[in-house]
Write a structure and sequence with these properties.
single chain, alpha+beta, Immunoglobulin-like, 3 domains, 5-stranded mixed beta sheet, about 35% strand
């Protein structure tokens, strides 16, 4: 199915207005919830309901982020409301089908107190001002089931209950390529076929990384998993397996990217000269919509932003300030989405 065959419609003006008010309130001094801060970083502090509606109509992940902001703002309160309803219309082979998300529910992983993300800890601070890593969740659309319930034959006799068909298992990940330590949202549909307590174990290359993940009544599950720090470069299997029947397993391929690399040229120079910086393998950065790298020499107070090219590289240049002391310095390239980073070292001569 081509991307052009998917149309997303968003309703709920009251909720969009509420999100706009939350964005405006974020300008005041005080703590800002993490999902709201993520939204403000994307749309800015002056975004109104119309801009939010326009973005949501084009981007299912942005719609899911609006859900999370609302859920976050209402957490702990007594009021429970029906929030934005997203309808995904699928047009395939000339047949129009519709899948509607349940009101008040977004395709997100279970609450953080049950299955929490593991945040990658960056290398210890060397005193050169290198930034710390950070992570944020991605929320993809639900997977449509590949099977539908067959019609029940009519009869003049007393009707009998037709057994519920076993759904096809399907899994997906919020991203299918990334670096070791990347947090990924992993989803499944059709898992109402799981027997017994209806829970799912999540496996990375056959080893359990999350256990007893609950399955919703409609057969969905969602959980955040972390790519093992020891994962080698290349393809790996991320699987959702029914805890009561290992034969019922859905799989998704995840590709581990090569490590990030930053180089400085020339690696020895004097103040007043131009330093060229290049990064490689930055196509492994998480993609939340900003395909750029923050490049900085913090010890000199220098920074810039460089776009990630199609081949995963970036390029930047700095002029070494006059009077810079002779020493070794770090130049850092950090993914703007996700926070992963790498450093290169160069020397300023007397």
């Amino acid at each position: 199915m081509a991307l052009g065959d998917i149309r997303i419609e968003v309703t709920g003006a009251a909720d969009l207005g509420e999100v706009a008010r939350l964005i405006a309130a974020a300008r005041d001094d005080g703590p800002v919830p993490p999902r709201l801060r993520e939204l403000v970083d994307i749309v800015g502090e002056d975004a109104g309901p119309d801009e939010l509606e326009t973005r949501a109509a084009k981007d299912a992940e942005f719609t899911a982020l609006l859900h999370e902001v609302l859920r976050e703002s209402r957490k702990g309160g007594k009021k429970r409301t029906t929030i934005v309803v997203v309808a995904v219309l699928l047009v395939t082979a000339g047949t129009l089908g519709a899948i509607t998300l349940l009101p008040g529910r977004t395709p997100e992983p279970p609450s953080e107190n049950r299955h929490s993300a593991v945040v990658t800890t960056p290398p210890p601070d060397t005193g050169t001002g290198a930034p710390t890593g950070s992570g944020a969740p991605l929320v993809p659309p639900l997977i449509p089931s590949s099977r539908t319930t067959p019609p029940t034959a009519t009869s003049t006799s007393t009707p009998t209950k037709t057994p519920e068909p076993r759904s096809s298992l399907a899994t997906t990940a919020s991203q299918t390529r990334g670096l070791p330590g990347t947090s990924v949202n992993f989803y499944g549909t059709g898992y109402n076929a799981c027997p017994g307590s209806r829970t799912v174990n999540v496996l990375w290359d056959g080893a359990v990384v999350e256990s007893a993940v609950p399955v919703e009544q409609d057969g969905r599950f969602g959980v955040r998993v972390t790519v093992p720090e020891s994962a080698s470069t290349g393809d790996h299997q991320l699987a959702g397996q029914c805890a009561g029947d290992s034969a019922l397993t859905g799989r998704t391929t995840f590709t581990v990217s090569p490590p990030l690399v930053v180089t400085a040229s020339p690696n020895k120079l004097r103040s007043g000269q131009v330093l060229s910086v290049r990064g490689r393998n930055y196509d492994g950065c998480p993609d939340y919509g900003t395909r750029s790298v923050s490049v900085s020499i913090s010890a000199m107070g220098l920074s810039t932003t460089a776009p990630i090219k199609a081949d995963g590289t970036f390029d930047a240049q700095f002029t070494i300030p006059p009077g810079t002391g002779a020493n070794d310095y770090d130049v850092v390239g950090q993914c703007q989405d996700g926070g992963q980073w790498a450093r290169g070292i160069f020397t300023v001569l007397p």
